[in-house]
Amino acid sequence: MFVDEQVGVNSAAKAYAINRLLMEMTQNNDLYNRYAWFEQKHSPRLSQNELADANTLFEQWLAEINKNGSLYPSEF
């Protein structure tokens, strides 16, 4: 996560959204706790705009995953 949050446009928000996705999808308590720790550590460093962008990305990606079974479109 730390490399992703330093590279590219809106990368901190993307890293945060990916962590939330992993927490949402995992059935493993240890993995959930690991990413929850990352989320708690990371969220205070995001601006309100970055946090809003991250939540929007999370919701879009989760809807796409629930629709297609993956983040990729179903026609592939």
From TrEMBL:
Name of this chain's protein: Uncharacterized protein
Organism this protein belongs to: Pseudoalteromonas lipolytica
